Amino acid sequence: MTGGPSPRAGTEQPDPGHPRTETVALPDALGRRLAQTLHAPASLPRFDDSQMDGYAVRAAETPGTLDITAPVAAGTVPEALPSGCAAPVMTGAPIPAGADAVIPVEATSTRNFADTGSTDRSSTESAAAPQRVLVPATSPGAFLRRRGSDVVHGEEVLAAGAVLTAAGVGLLAAFGLTEVDVLRRPRALVIVGGDEVLAPGRDLPPGKVYDANGSLLAGWAASRGLEVLAVRLIDDDVADFVERLRADLSDTRPELIITSGGISAGRYEVMRQGFAVMDEITFDVGTVAMQPGGPQGLGTAALPGGGEAAVICLPGNPVSTWVSCEAMLADALAEAWGLNQPQPWVPAQLAWPVQPLAEKDQLRRGTLQHTPAGIIAAPMTGTSSHLLAAAATAEALIRVPAGAQELPAGATVTVRRL
Ligand SMILES: Nc1nc2c(c(=O)[nH]1)N[C@H]1C(S)=C(S)[C@@H](COP(=O)(O)OP(=O)(O)OC[C@H]3O[C@@H](n4cnc5c(N)ncnc54)[C@H](O)[C@@H]3O)O[C@H]1N2
Ligand code: MOO
């Protein structure tokens, strides 16, 4: 089995029941994708300003001794600079008309504004403040930040679909924006369970286990850029599962359904048995040549009134579920919906010998050490898919390709940092 959810262009509207974009407040826009191309609504900087705490001068009047005018604080509008004068300007302050360069204060006879006189922004009076300053030679444009030198009004700054980084969010705020239109996150429904699986927080009768996968999948899906609509914890009652899923298809209208467990060869395989009786679901289950994460299901669910959801069924062992997400589903989401790219697979050298499986790639959990010679990958002891505690300390997946021969220490494998 290859692939993931049926690929769709990142901006396509899969469900007519939901708008393609939404408006979010700026801090919440981090990591979201822009709905429309952004053209700069203003030039940045908005005015010529000073790059340094220093003196605004006419370059042609340097070097020399100049009269000191009133200081120019950031956030004020200065008088024009008379000839023969130097205006103290603070970083970010507008440049007085007539000045064409700034000389950092430490390059002048003043050395440091902090020790010279009043902190009253409007005051020109100070017993300690010198009246004249000796400045070195400079040239026009020195230490000036020209209006529009970052971006010019009307210029394209970010393309539709671009992921907003922290710098991107800061840029929107610098333009004075408080909210932005972003592409809606694909809507995911998580279904986990089995008769033995109970929600954490309750007493645990003998033979039962707490649901690890609901939280695991919900957290992982949100971190990959999905909107998690709900986490449904079901038991092995097939009729109940079908009824609840039909209600969810109608009410929550997911674009992706991620299930965990209930798909292998047992007597009680609720997902597999439930999907089989639902006409609105096409579904196939098979095995990929990978351990953990062998059993996998893939399908689609038709939504009432139009639209469809991709159905991804992951094996129930917690490490199998998790490894399936990190090694396959992340790539499928990036390809299908343009969500964040997972870490690349990169070469590394085994820290110690490893015996591969004969016919399946094995995804060992391990730690990485970065050395001048490259990355050393140390696989953890134990390969079984119930070893969640070990997985929780892993830094990387280590792909050990199928083969008969033991791989010696130093053999090259590929690793994906988690
Ligand atoms: N005869 C065969 N048996 C099994 C095969 C096979 O090929 N033939 N494959 C094995 C492999 S590999 C895996 S992986 C599992 C996958 O089984 P299911 O996806 O059907 O998962 P379950 O049987 O429901 O559960 C497996 C295991 O995981 C625990 N589990 C399930 N859900 C949760 C949860 N939400 N939180 C915590 N733990 C969970 C469950 O209790 C079981 O221990 O099948 C093998 N068997
Ligand atoms: O593939 Mo199962 O996931 O080995 O445990």
UniProtKB/TrEMBL annotation:
<dbReference type="InterPro" id="IPR005111">
    <property type="entry name" value="MoeA_C_domain_IV"/>
</dbReference>
<dbReference type="InterPro" id="IPR036135">
    <property type="entry name" value="MoeA_linker/N_sf"/>
</dbReference>
<dbReference type="InterPro" id="IPR036688">
    <property type="entry name" value="MoeA_C_domain_IV_sf"/>
</dbReference>
<dbReference type="InterPro" id="IPR001453">
    <property type="entry name" value="MoaB/Mog_dom"/>
</dbReference>
<dbReference type="InterPro" id="IPR036425">
    <property type="entry name" value="MoaB/Mog-like_dom_sf"/>
</dbReference>
<dbReference type="Pfam" id="PF03454">
    <property type="entry name" value="MoeA_C"/>
</dbReference>
<keyword id="KW-0500">Molybdenum</keyword>
<dbReference type="InterPro" id="IPR005110">
    <property type="entry name" value="MoeA_linker/N"/>
</dbReference>
<comment type="function">
    <text>Catalyzes the insertion of molybdate into adenylated molybdopterin with the concomitant release of AMP.</text>
</comment>
<keyword id="KW-0460">Magnesium</keyword>
<feature type="domain" description="MoaB/Mog">
    <location>
        <begin position="189"/>
        <end position="336"/>
    </location>
</feature>
<comment type="similarity">
    <text>Belongs to the MoeA family.</text>
</comment>
<protein>
    <recommendedName>
        <fullName>Molybdopterin molybdenumtransferase</fullName>
        <ecNumber>2.10.1.1</ecNumber>
    </recommendedName>
</protein>
<comment type="pathway">
    <text>Cofactor biosynthesis; molybdopterin biosynthesis.</text>
</comment>
<dbReference type="InterPro" id="IPR038987">
    <property type="entry name" value="MoeA-like"/>
</dbReference>
<dbReference type="Pfam" id="PF00994">
    <property type="entry name" value="MoCF_biosynth"/>
</dbReference>
<keyword id="KW-0479">Metal-binding</keyword>
<dbReference type="Pfam" id="PF03453">
    <property type="entry name" value="MoeA_N"/>
</dbReference>
<feature type="region of interest" description="Disordered">
    <location>
        <begin position="1"/>
        <end position="23"/>
    </location>
</feature>
<keyword id="KW-0808">Transferase</keyword>
<keyword id="KW-0501">Molybdenum cofactor biosynthesis</keyword>
